Amino acid sequence: MKRPNFFIAGAPRCGTTALYSYLSEHPDIFMSEVKELNYFAFDFPNVQKITFKSEMDYLKVFEKANHLAIGEASPFYLYSQVAFTNIRKFNPEAKIILTLRSPINFVQSFHQLNLSLLREDEENLEKAWELQDQRRQGKQIPASCRQPEMILYGELGLFGKYVERLLTIFPRDQVLIIIFEDFAKQPQEIYEKILEFIGVPSDGRTEFPPVNSNFSNKSTLLAKLFHPPQSIYKAFIKVISLFGVNFMKFVSIIYNKIETLNTKRTSREPVAPEFKAALKTYFQKDVQTLSVLVNRDLSFWLE
After folding, report:
1. Would the pLDDT of 254 be above 90?
2. 107, 199, 250, 298 — which has fewest CB within 10 A?
């Protein structure tokens, strides 16, 4: 049974869904039908969409793969303390792809996503930012937030910290770091660069429609049904896991399709100048760290 040989490993809200979508349509690439498997993030069990009881269960997702490149996209691998070590043991030759953006824009976008997924119940970003200290202590956690780390926005935006850790596990030539702003401006050039990195020929793609823009829910009631409190969610997963991986994969695909139908595009609220200045100060040192790691001045992220 073939194994995945590349992983889109982060960061969320940085173009991973678009990249996953584009690569899924390439004839020489097999992408898992379900995005965000999160199998290797053993320390984040509550973000797994499918319960895998073993590595063989995980490999069943790829049993139809007979392609030059086989991949999956789990953006939360970037934050896991064990995922990259587990991936290296699983496939020492695996390629890792990251897409990263301005942490200030990331925080705004990820907060909006969390609101849509009911992981967040504080609609004001600045107030949600101020809640982080309490949330680290297990307080003020929304009932539908299955992984509290996902609402610690400051920690999630420290991309330099996570890339530094990744590069202690994987050699630099097995890691490709894409700057989201480049991808948005020159999608074809970046796409071809990614294809070369994972070892597949160009498919001549020239159209790169937007995918997974900022959105909100059409029906709050339906969103609550699909994102219940943690206790109900765990019970549901426990029941459907009895039917095996393929059934869980089927449920996840249907779930994603219905969830997509319940979303509508929306615009982000602007950040107050004083709060934006505070975010710049908070992320400045980490952006400098990442600039050194990627050998590129990323100070424009803080403008």
Report:
1. no
2. 199
